[in-house]
Give the backbone structure.
Amino acid sequence: MQALNNITVVDWIVALLTLLWLIGIVTVPWNIYFQTRTILVEAEESKKRDITVEEENISYAKRWSERALVLAVALHLATALGMYFLATFGVSFIGYFGAGAALILTFVRPIARGYRYVRERLATIREEISYPREDIVSLKETVKEIKNVVERLEKRLDTSLEESWAAEQERSLEALRTKLDLMRQRIDDIAETNKLDHEKISRDAQNAMAQAMADAAIVNHVREIVRFFKEA
């Protein structure tokens, strides 16, 4: 309680900076290290299944795995030593806590990440048993083929491309519509001409009938005249 009452502004600043620094060294280098280890393990699994893996990528991951491990341990040790000197030279007693935390986290972080790695590895093994990697690769190839087919279909159905099938069909339909319009117009013209011809034939027939009736009337008159003269 006495120590808490003697906390100064410098102690608060040191504590805040120490906390941020510890979060940084616990997160960044260790994340890089464990991520590269995961990549290397997956690369080995892929090689066992004759899946092509770039050796350059594997070498890159190995280099960063080694660098990240050395950097993480070095930062923990350097932080612990630096915090101890801060406390020893009387800058802030928080340095003792920071030094202890840095040393403890050197082991706590790998242990916690190791537990997580084992759990993830077991989940991966279970997934591979249920869904073998060969099946996943085959499925990816199938999806890739389907994607290529869809892209080809999109190009064939894209009316904005002059050489596409859809554009050709659109041009053919337009030409067919033009021909149908011309044929419809021609049929209308023929129908109109046929109507006029029928009307003319009907008038001619009526005129011929009227003329025949008139001729018949004249013939009757002539017969009457002839009969009159015979009887006289």
About this structure: The longest helix spans residues 165-231.
